[in-house]
Amino acid sequence: MAEWTEIKIKVNADDIDRASDIAGMAVPYGIYIEDYRTLEEETLEIANIDIIDDDLLAKDRNVGFIHIYISPEENYNEAISFLRERFTAEGIEHTIEHSACRNEDWENNWKEYFKPMKIGERLLIRPLWIDDFNPDGRKVLSIEPGLAFGSGTHNTTRLCLQMLEKYVTGGESVLDCGCGSGILSVASLLFGAKNAVGVDIDALAVKTARENGSVNGFSEPEYTVLQGNLVDKVVGKFDVVTANIVADIIIRFAGQVGDFMNEGAVFITSGIISAREEEVRAAFYENGFEVIERREDGGWLCFACKKK
Prior knowledge:
Layout: E1 5-12, H1 16-26, E2 31-35, H2 39-47, H3 54-57, E3 63-70, H4 76-90, E4 94-100, H5 106-109, E5 117-119, E6 123-127, E7 139-143, H6 155-167, E8 173-177, H7 183-191, E9 195-200, H8 203-215, E10 223-227, E11 238-244, H9 247-253, E12 261-273, H10 277-286, E13 289-297, E14 300-307
Parallel strand pairs: 6-7, 8-9, 8-11, 9-10, 11-12
Antiparallel strand pairs: 1-3, 1-4, 2-3, 5-6, 12-14, 13-14
Helix pairs in contact: 1-4, 6-7, 9-10
C-alpha cells in the first residue's frame, strides 16, 4: 500500500508567512511550520517557563521550515512543481526535499486514483493513459498530470475552469498568466476561444503547457506559451485574462492587468483563500475593477471581474 509523502521546504525566516500561504494552496491539509524567531517569548507566554531544551535553543533563527503531506491519491511531483514555480515568482529563496515510505511502484501508484473527471457542464479531463471513457457530449481535455501544476483536481483549477466555461463562448482571445500545465488556456480553446497565450516563469511548466496543447491539437499561432513573469513578455490585449496564482501576486497584478484587457474583457482569478478576500477585493476596487461573479469551493475563492 502506498504511503504519504512529506515535502519539506526551507526558506528564509522573514519569508515564512508568504511561503506558508503558498504552501497552503498546494495542499489544504497536513501542514506544519517550524519558525524559531520568537522561541523564547512564545515559550514564556505559553508555558510560563524560561527553561528551553538545548536542541531547540540551537535552532537557526534565520531560516524556517514548512512541512506538507501529500496523500497517496495525489501526485506529489505536481505539488513540488507548483511550489517551485510560485516561490520563484515571489522571489522567495527556497530548497525543497521530499521523502516517503514507499513501495517499489510509488512513482506511479497515484495514477490508479486519477480518473476522467467531469468539470462544469461542458468539459471532461482525461489522463493520457486512459483510453476507455465516455465523453458524454463534453469537450475532452487530455492531459499528462504531474509535470506542472494544474490537473483539475485542485479546487482553484476547477473554479477557474467553471468560470471559463461561462465566459468563453466563442471567438475570444485569452491570456493565461501563471499557466502551469496549460490546463486553463487549452480548456479555453476547447470552449471556442480563437487563440490563447499562456505565460509561466518556470521552464518546465512552459514545456508541459506546450506539450499539453499539442496533445489536444493546439499549437502556434493559435496557442502560444511564453516564459516570463506574468505579463513582462506579453504584447496585445485580450478578451479574457485568467490568473490562478496566490493572493499577494493577484493584489499586485490588479494594477497591471487592465493594460492587457480589451473593452468589456473579463479577468478571472483564483488561488485566494477566504481569509484574504477583503484584501483582494480592495485591490480590485483601487484599480477600477468590479466583481461580477464570486465562487467558492473548500475555502478557496474565484472571482470574475470587469473594469468599471
